[in-house]
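retry 2 of 3: previous attempt timed out while embedding coenzyme A. Reduced batch size to 1 and resubmitted. Inputs unchanged:
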Amino acid sequence: MGDVAVDLGGGAMLRSFVPDDADAVYALIDRNRVRLSRWFPWVDEATDASSQASWIESHREEPCRPNGIWVGEELAGACDLWLLGRDDTGEVGFWLDEGFVGRGLVTRGVQALFAIGFDRHGLHRTQLRAGVDNLRSRAVAKRLKMREEGVLRGAGKVGGGLYVDLVMYGLLVDEWQITR
Ligand SMILES: CC(C)(COP(=O)(O)OP(=O)(O)OC[C@H]1O[C@@H](n2cnc3c(N)ncnc32)[C@H](O)[C@@H]1OP(=O)(O)O)[C@@H](O)C(=O)NCCC(=O)NCCS
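retry 2 succeeded.
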């Protein structure tokens, strides 16, 4: 139901993870552990490939499953749209291997997920929460014409049990239709 397979151009593809991707996911997280820990709480829980297989399997029935960004056969990162509660709102999340930063992969991945969220799932709103110091993530939001809505104090728990302030960005369906 929630399968994603979108050509992002330039040999890149956004595709839903399957359990067989677990080795590649774990290897990429392990290689980027320090930089990902700065912004995500789940990195310490990624202990081996089987932890990733379980994670992929546990999200199999969701309307919008977690996705990898692939360049050729190589996994470059992840780009997800989580459907939240009953408010017709979806939240995007993403990360890239350091070697794939700077190529527009996540901007194109999120654009594809916006189209899926608004067109296929009837969303009214999409949002992104980015650490106030996470300038690259905030640049993605700006590139996608998301509106900066405010700062959520201490709302993000990251690696090492630290809390960071998050900037909330939002994009409503009417705004997306103008900018798409
Ligand atoms: C956040 C993160 C995914 C952003 O990666 P990114 O590569 O800067 O973002 P994009 O993939 O959208 O690429 C944008 C860059 O590619 C360039 N680019 C090239 N082709 C492009 C295209 N077709 N479209 C858009 N940008 C393009 C842009 O100019 C920009 O480069 P610049 O900032 O050096 O000018 C990355 O820094 C990361 O993995 N950080 C750690 C995890 C993280 O913080 N995740 C987010 C938590 S909220």
